[in-house]
Each structure stands twice: as structure tokens, then as C-alpha cells.
Design brief:
The structure is a single chain. With 238 residues, this protein is an alpha+beta fold. The protein folds into two domains: 89 residues, Glutaredoxin (3-Layer(aba) Sandwich), CATH 3.40.30.10; 138 residues, Glutathione S-transferase Yfyf (Class Pi), Chain A, domain 2 (Up-down Bundle), CATH 1.20.1050.10. The protein is built from ten helices and four strands, in the order βαβαββαααααααα. It has a four-stranded mixed β-sheet, covered by helices on one side. Strand 1, helix 1 and strand 2 form a beta-alpha-beta unit. The longest helix is centred in the middle third of the chain and has 26 residues. Bound molecules: glutathione. This is GST N-terminal domain-containing protein. Keywords: Oxidoreductase. GO terms for molecular function: glutathione dehydrogenase (ascorbate) activity; glutathione transferase activity. InterPro entries: Glutathione-S-Trfase_C-like, Glutathione-S-Trfase_C_sf, Glutathione_S-Trfase, Glutathione_S-Trfase_N, GST_omega, GST_Omega/HSP26, Thioredoxin-like_sf.
Length: 238
């Protein structure tokens, strides 16, 4: 019998989505528990993740109700760390290459995504910076790591580097297509136009491959995300 694995997540969270994708790609059975981030249950920080954020997982121990986690299970948070743990748990999934150089490329790609793509993206989308220049610089850095015409971040198969960036790419697309964000009106569409330049073709081609992956397509609720962002941004502006 495989050990139990429970994922604590939220549909709005790209970081939770990363874990869902890795588990789907590895074809792993697990229990998903949606944490109400707007009314967080006390037991979540007390028993699962002291900083109260999703994603988090429990692994092993008895198969219990997710609302009453067992002290006997292993608890883990931080999406990049969970991704690596999942890949190590299921080595046959190929989510993390065995070759040290390929492995390092995957981990470096993930680090670049977090520092240079996700971070400036959040700043801009949250209206904490006036321009998307930092974000676009991140696109260029990611693009610099991609091989010409490759459908994967590293090598010729899906790894946790892809799972790390894919949810951000789907949200990126919603942003420039709908113009919903904390930035000045029109900047989302402007970014979308700018990305059509031939110099970003490699990035967009890779992004499209990720968006077409069944693991993402089946778990990507663009309409829900757009509606929730609109609601949250409107509430914040009032
Ligand atoms: N660095 C963390 C970020 C996790 C994170 O920010 N999660 C957000 C949802 S997207 C959250 O749980 N927010 C609830 C809170 O801060 O109370 C990771 O990669 O897992």
C-alpha cells in the first residue's frame, strides 16, 4: 500500500497548482483539501503549516480526515520544496532527472522562475510597481534558459521546472488577455501586444506547449481566476 498523501491547496493559488500538476503528471493518487484562505481554520496553522500558507502536504501516517491531521504524518510546505519531494518520492516519474547537470538545470530554472518572473510579476499585478519592465526582463531570462523550439523547460521531458512555471504562465495569459490586475488600466493589454514581437517567440511557443498539456488544461479554470481577481481588485480599490 502506498503512503497517504494529502495536499492542502486553494484554487486561486498558483503555488498549489504547481503541486497538482506534478502529481497529475506522475499519475499519483492523493487527497486534495481546499483550505478556505478567506476564513482560515485554526487547525491549519496549528497542525499543518505554522505560516498558514498553501500549498502544504501531509505524507504517511494513518489515512485520516484532512481536517484532523495525524501527528504521525510528515508535514511539508513551500511549493518548490514540495515539488522536489514529490519528484524524489516517485523517481520513475522522471520529474527530476538523475543526471547531476540536468538536475541542476531544473533547480536553476525553478530558482529563476521564483526570483525573476514570479516576484516582479506579483509586484506589477498587485499594483506595487508602475511598470511591467521587471516582469518582461524575467520573460527574457526564462527565454534565455529555453532551447530553441523545445516544449519543455529542460531536456526532452516534463520536469518539476515545467510544473513550477506552468501555473504562472496560465495566469500571465489571463492578465494580458483580460487586462485584470492592480496595474493602470490598459497595461495588461499593452504587455500582450509587446509579447507578439518576434524576440519573444521562443518564450511564447514554450508557454503555449505548457498551456496545451492535459495536466494544465484539465485543471485550468481561467473564468474562475479572472472573476475572482476582478472581485478582489475591486474590493481592494474601494
Ligand atoms: N513561497 C510560497 C508561497 C505560498 C503562498 O504565498 N501562498 C498563498 C496563496 S497563493 C497563501 O497561502 N496565502 C494565505 C496567507 O498568506 O494567509 C510557496 O511557494 O509555497
Amino acid at each position: 500500500m502506498p503512503e497517504q498523501l494529502t495536499l492542502y491547496s486553494h484554487k486561486l493559488s498558483p503555488y498549489s497548482h504547481r503541486i497538482e500538476l506534478a502529481l497529475a503528471e506522475a499519475n499519483i493518487k492523493y487527497k486534495n483539501y481546499e483550505v478556505d484562505l478567506f476564513n482560515k481554520p485554526k487547525w491549519f496553522a496549528a497542525k499543518i503549516n505554522p505560516i498558514g500558507k498553501v500549498p502544504a502536504i501531509t505524507y504517511g501516517g494513518p489515512d485520516v480526515d484532512p481536517e484532523d491531521p495525524s501527528p504521525l504524518s510528515f508535514k511539508l510546505a513551500e511549493s518548490s520544496v514540495i515539488l522536489q519531494f514529490v519528484a524524489e518520492l516517485y523517481p520513475e516519474s522522471g520529474l527530476l532527472p538523475k543526471d547531476p547537470v540536468e538536475r541542476a538545470k531544473v533547480l536553476f530554472f525553478m530558482d529563476t522562475v521564483d526570483r525573476h518572473f514570479d516576484r516582479p510579476g506579483n509586484e506589477w499585478m498587485g499594483g506595487r510597481t508602475e511598470s511591467y519592465e521587471g516582469y518582461l526582463k524575467g520573460v527574457e531570462m526564462i527565454q534565455g534558459l529555453l532551447s530553441e523550439g523545445s516544449e519543455f523547460a529542460v531536456g526532452d521531458r516534463y520536469t518539476i521546472a515545467d510544473a513550477c512555471i506552468a501555473p504562472l504562465l496560465s495566469r500571465f495569459k489571463i492578465t494580458y488577455e483580460t487586462d485584470i490586475g492592480g496595474f493602470p488600466v490598459g497595461q495588461g493589454h499593452k504587455l500582450g501586444e509587446e509579447l507578439k514581437a518576434p524576440e519573444y517567440a521562443k518564450f511564447l511557443n514554450y508557454a503555449q506547449c505548457m498551456l496545451e498539456r492535459p495536466s494544465l488544461r484539465d485543471s485550468n479554470d481561467e473564468a474562475y481566476l479572472a472573476e475572482m481577481w476582478k472581485k478582489l481588485i475591486t474590493e481592494r480599490r474601494q
